[in-house]
Amino acid sequence: MTPVIELAGVSKAFGPVKVLTGVDFALYPGEVHALMGENGAGKSTMIRIASGDHRADEGEIRLDGEARRFRGPREAQEEGIAVVHQELLLFPSLSVAENIFLGHQPKTRRGFVDWGRMRREARELLDRLDCPQLDVDQRVAKLSVADRQRVEIARALSRKARVLIMDEPTAALAEADVQRLLDVIRRLREDGVAIVYVSHRMNEIFAIADRITVLRDGTSTGTYPVSEVTESSLVSMMVGRDIHQLFPKIEVERGKTRLEVRNLSRTGLVEDISFDLHAGEILGIAGLVGSGRTELAQTIFGVTPATSGEIKVDGSPRKIASVRDAIANGIAYVPEDRGLHGLVRPQPLRENVTMAILDRMTKFSVIDTGREQRMAKEAIDRFAIRARDARQRVGQLSGGNQQKVVLAKWLATDPKVLILDEPTRGIDIGAKTEIHRLMGELARKGIAILMISSELPEVLGMSDRILVMKEGRLSAVIDRKDATPDKVGAAMMRTRPEPAAAGAVR
Amino acid sequence: MKSRSFHVVGSLGQEILLVLVILALFAFVGWVNPRFVSENNLTSIFVGNAYIAVAAIGMSLVIISGNIDVSIGALIGVLAVISGLLVTNGYPIWFAWLAPLIIGSAINTLLGCLIAYARVPSIIATLAMLSILSGGLITFTGGQWISGLPSGYQLAQFRLLNIPSPVWFMIGMTIVAALLMRYTAFGRSVYAVGSNPEAARASGIGHASTVVKVFAIHGAIAGVAAVLFATQLQVIQSTTPVGLELVIITASVVGGVSILGGVGTVVGSTLAAILFAAIGSSLIFLNVSAYWLKAVQGVLILATVLADMARRRRTG
Description:
The structure holds two protein chains of two kinds. By secondary structure, chain A is of the alpha/beta class. Chain A contains 19 helices and 22 strands. Chain A folds into two domains: 5-241, Rossmann fold (3-Layer(aba) Sandwich); 256-493, 3-Layer(aba) Sandwich (Rossmann fold). In chain A, helix 16 (429-444) links the parallel strand 19 (417-421) and strand 20. In chain A, helix 4 packs across helix 5. The radius of gyration of chain A is 25 Å and the shape is globular. Mean pLDDT of chain A is 83; it is low at 496-506. In chain B, a hairpin with a 2-residue loop joins strand 1 and strand 2 (163-164). By secondary structure, chain B is mostly helical. Chain B has helices at residues 2-11, 13-32, 39-64, 72-88, 93-116, 122-141, 165-183, 185-195, 197-202, 207-230, 244-254, 266-285, 292-315; strands spanning 159-160, 163-164. Chain B has one domain: ABC transporter involved in vitamin B12 uptake, BtuC. The interface between A and B is medium-sized, with 33 and 26 residues. Chain A: Its main location: membrane. Chain A: Residues 5-242, 250-496 form the ABC transporter domain.
C-alpha cells in the first residue's frame, strides 16, 4: 500500500536555526499516526510543511507516491489535507453551517450561496461526527470548546479530507469530551481517513494510535507500532536523556513559610485553594489548559482579586486587591504571554526592567536614570541577556532573551514569592536550561517559587512538590519523590478530588 | 558619553529630519524671495501658528497613550470665546487668561473618565464632544464675533527680549512636556499604557488613572492654546476653527507620534507644527495657491505613517 502522504528527508531552517533535519514520515490510509515530541522538537513545523504552510528546504513530499510541491495551504487543502488547529480558527459571529463551508459554499446556478444545500450538508457532516444535537444555525460564539472542535473537524471533512492532522485536540477538553472525540476519530479511521494525532497525553496515545513517530530536536527517532513501545520508552525517546539529568535540580533546604494561601476563591475561576509555599521551594502547578492554573496565579497577584479566602506573606495576612498591592507585598508574577502581558516591545530594555518598580525609581517623581542604567546593565550581566546594550528595544531581542528581560523586570521588585507562568514556553533549549538554572539559584537565595507549566517533564524535573489543578480546584498535591507522569496525569484528569487533597495542605 | 550622544540622535530620528527639512525650506524660500525670512514674516508665522504647536503637545500625549481626540478644535474655539466673554464682561484679564485652562482641563477630565472608566472608545467620546461643543458654541453666540477687547488682554502680542510671547510659550511648554515624558514615572506610564496596556496593568501601572491624567493635562494645554488663539487679534471668532483638530493631529503624527500609541515625542510634534506654518507661508511667497497647503499636509501624513509602519515591521 502506498502512503497517502510521505515526507522523505525533509529539512527546514528558520534563519540560522535548524528546526527539522532529514525527517522521514509516512502516513497510510485508515491509520492513526501519533506524532510526539517535546515543545520545540519540530512537530508544528512538520505539520506546517505537510499542510503547505511552510516549504521544506530539502527533501520531498509525496502524495500517493508522487512528488509534490505545495505553493500554499490552499493547494494542500485541495488535495484533501486538513489541519485542526489547537487554537480553533473559527468565526464566532457566523453560524455553524457558514463556518463549515466558509470559502467553498455550495452555490446555486446563478452564483448565490445555496443555503438549503449548505445547511443540509452541514447537518450530514455533523451527524457523521455523532453530534445530532448541534444546531447548524447556531452562532459559533455560543458553542462550547468541544463543539467548536467538532465544527472544525466537520469543516475539514467538508473539504473531503483524506488526511486529518490534529494538533493537541484534547488540550482543552474535559474527560467525557475526550472520549467522544476518540470515538469520532475511530469512526473516521474506519472510513479510511489517515489521521495525524499530536498529543502529549500517553493514555490517549495508547488508546487510539496505530503507530507512533517521535521527534527530538528536529530529527525523527523512528516510527514504531504502538505495541512495540511503552510509556517510559517513549519518554526517553522524546527527551533523549533521563529526566533528572535534563533538569539539574539543586537541592535547597526548605526555609520558613513564605506564602500561605487559605480557602482562596475567585468566583467562577478558582475555588477553595489552600497551600503553603516555603522559602527555597519550587512548587509546580500542573493541570490542563483551562484548569485554573493561570487564574490561580492571577488571583494571588491581584489581577483578578480574590472574592474570598486569605493570603499570608511571611506569616501576616495581606490584602491583595490589585497588582500594586501584590508587588508591594513582595509577590511577582512572570506572565505566560510575554508579548501580551510582559513587555513593552518598542521601549528600551532598561525601561522595561524598571517598569514594575517605577515608583521606587523616582525622587520627586523624577526617574533616577543613572540608577536605571546600572540596574539594566546588571540584569544583562546576571542573566546573560544577549543585547547590544541597555538601550536596545526589547522587541528586537530573541524569545529567550525577552523572557530573561521579563524575569529581570520582576526580580527587580525584590520579590519574596515569584510566580512563573510557563517560564520556558516557546524558547530554545539553551535558554530553557539557563532559565532552569536561574530558578535553582533564586530558590537557593530564599525566594519561594510557584511554577506553572504544561510540560510534564519540566514540572517533574523542577518541582519540590506538585499541585495539580482541575476545574478550578486543587485535585492533588504530590511530593517530588512520589511524582510520576502517571500519577500527575491521572490527577489532571480525575473528576473528583482525592479526600487527602480536599483539606488544607501543609 | 559618546554612546549617549549617539543614543540621542538615534531616538530623535524624526526630529532631526524635521529640523533639516525646516532649515532647507527656509533656505530655499528665502533664496527665492528674501522677504520670506524677514523679521516681520517670521513673527507672523510663529505668532499665528504657535497655538497649534502648543495644542499638538497635548495631542501627542493623548495619541502616545493610545487614544485620539478629535474635539480639540472645538474645545479651543469654545475656550477662546469663554475667555473673550469674560474679559468683555468686566472680569479681570488674568482671570480671562486662567479660566480656559481650568475649564479645558475639567472638560477633558470628564472625557478621560468616559474613555478610561466607562470604556467608551476615544474616537467616539471625542466625536460626541466635538458635536456638543461646536453645536453649543454656535447656539450660544449666534455666530457673533467678540470685539471691544481691552488693551492689555492681547497676550499673544506681548514680547519678551523682542521675541513674541507665543514663541516663548511654544518653546517653554515643549521643553517641560519633553522632560515630563522622558524623566518622570508619569511619562513612562503614558508610553507603557499606549504601547501595551496589558503589560502596564500587569506591572501595577494604573491604566485608567494614567489616561485621565493625560486628558486633564491635554485640556489645560488646550486652554493655553485657546488664550494664544484668542489674543492674537482684536476680535475673537465665535465659530470653531474648521479643520483645526486635523491640523493638530497631523502635526503630532508627522512629528513622529505613532497613531498606534506608545511611540513619539512632543519635540517632534512642535517641529512639525512649525514646518506646517512655514510651508503655509512659503506657498504665498512662492506665489503658489495657499490651497495646496492641505494637499501637502495630506502627503506628509501618509508618508510619515507609511514610514512608521515600515519601521514597525523592521523592529517588531
